[in-house]
């Protein structure tokens, strides 16, 4: 298959909540029972290593999931907790796991928006921010953390959130990509928390790396990860082209664009689709391709820049 072939999204993920599954030697996963249109079958937490282990993304505020994770590592020592980003389906359970294990928490930093909020903005993000989260150790791009038989490198992947990190295991060619890349669907990029400009740059960064098996925050593992990242880049560029095609017919608003572009969308995802269109428009306005009066906001009207 060539790089230009479309890659179908893979919605085959039979893992049941609370069951620990060894997906590759040194990598186990446990699914949280929090299915939704945004989380697919639920949030996937990962256990890295054997004996002295790390947990990646403890998940939402969910006592049963915390118990399942702790049960999965019974008799082992949790030495590190990693968090890819601060949405409420990924980070709130960190406090429970830290309290039970005493392990320090590693992440980019507390939740923050990708840009300052505009005066006119009312925000309605898809899963909500975990504003109580604070790591013990702040990681920057390229920082390496080593544990018992594993070594993880922080890869800055802002876009879905400003503080999103992937954690690469270069020796094994694995990458824990959080919500930046998902095999079952595209990621939501909802300003001001998210930024399409950052998101596209981060896809380029992942596509240029050697790791070829991605472990995602939702859904199944993704083989040929860099090729899939390039597919997502093409997919986003096609979405941008659809927006520009609609704007070529005249000035319009975001709900009109969503109806034209997202045919047959689950009605529960309409708001999120609007924010995704806004993220593209924000990027297009910054590049001088599209114009709007005032700030690029969800309620604005947009036209091609003359």
Description of the structure:
InterPro entries: LACTB2_WH, Metallo-B-lactamas, RibonucZ/Hydroxyglut_hydro, Sec-metab_biosynth-thioest, WH-like_DNA-bd_sf. Strand 5 (77-82), helix 2 and strand 6 (105-107) form a beta-alpha-beta unit. With 306 residues, the protein is of the alpha+beta class. It has two domains: 19-234, Metallo-beta-lactamase, Chain A (4-Layer Sandwich), CATH 3.60.15.10; 240-304, Winged helix-like DNA-binding domain superfamily/Winged helix DNA-binding domain (Arc Repressor Mutant, subunit A, Orthogonal Bundle), CATH 1.10.10.10. It has helices at residues 63-72, 94-101, 196-207, 225-247, 254-261, 270-286; strands spanning 20-24, 27-31, 44-48, 52-56, 77-82, 105-107, 137-138, 144-147, 150-156, 165-169, 174-178, 213-216, 222-223, 252-253, 290-292, 301-304. Helix 3 (196-207) packs antiparallel against helix 4 (225-247) and helix 5 (254-261) crosses helix 6 (270-286). Strands 1-2-3-4-5-6-7 form a seven-stranded mixed beta sheet, with helices on one face. A six-stranded mixed beta sheet has the order 8-9-10-11-12-13, with no helix packed on it. The longest helix has 23 residues, at 225-247. The model has no long low-confidence stretch (mean pLDDT 95).
């Amino acid at each position: 298959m060539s790089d230009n072939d479309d890659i179908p999204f893979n919605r085959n993920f039979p893992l049941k909540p609370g069951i620990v599954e060894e997906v590759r030697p040194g990598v186990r996963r446990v699914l949280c029972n929090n299915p939704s249109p945004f989380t697919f079958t639920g949030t996937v937490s990962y256990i890295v290593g054997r004996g002295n282990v790390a947990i990646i993304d403890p998940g939402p505020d969910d006592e049963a999931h915390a118990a399942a994770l702790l049960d999965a590592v019974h008799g082992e020592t949790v030495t590190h907790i990693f968090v890819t980003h601060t949405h409420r389906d990924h980070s709130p359970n960190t406090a429970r796991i830290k309290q039970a294990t005493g392990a320090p928490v590693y992440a980019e930093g507390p939740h923050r928006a990708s840009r300052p909020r505009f005066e006119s903005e009312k925000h309605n993000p898809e899963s909500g921010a975990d504003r109580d989260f604070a790591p013990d150790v702040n990681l920057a791009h390229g920082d390496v953390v080593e544990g018992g038989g594993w070594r993880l490198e922080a890869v800055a992947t802002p876009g879905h959130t400003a503080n999103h990190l992937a954690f690469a295991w270069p020796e094994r060619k694995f990458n824990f990509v959080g919500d930046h890349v998902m095999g079952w669907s595209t990621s939501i990029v909802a300003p001001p928390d998210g930024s399409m400009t950052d998101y596209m740059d981060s896809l380029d960064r992942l596509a240029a790396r050697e790791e070829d098996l991605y472990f995602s925050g939702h859904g199944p593992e993704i083989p040929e990860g860099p090729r899939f990242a390039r597919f997502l880049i093409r997919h986003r560029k096609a979405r941008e082209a659809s927006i520009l095609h609609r704007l070529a017919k005249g000035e319009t608003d975001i709900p009109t664009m969503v109806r034209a572009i997202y045919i047959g969308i689950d009605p529960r995802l309409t708001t999120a689709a609007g924010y995704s269109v806004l993220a593209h428009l924000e990027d297009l306005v910054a590049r001088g391709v599209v114009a709007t009066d005032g700030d690029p906001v969800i309620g604005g009207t947009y036209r091609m820049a003359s």
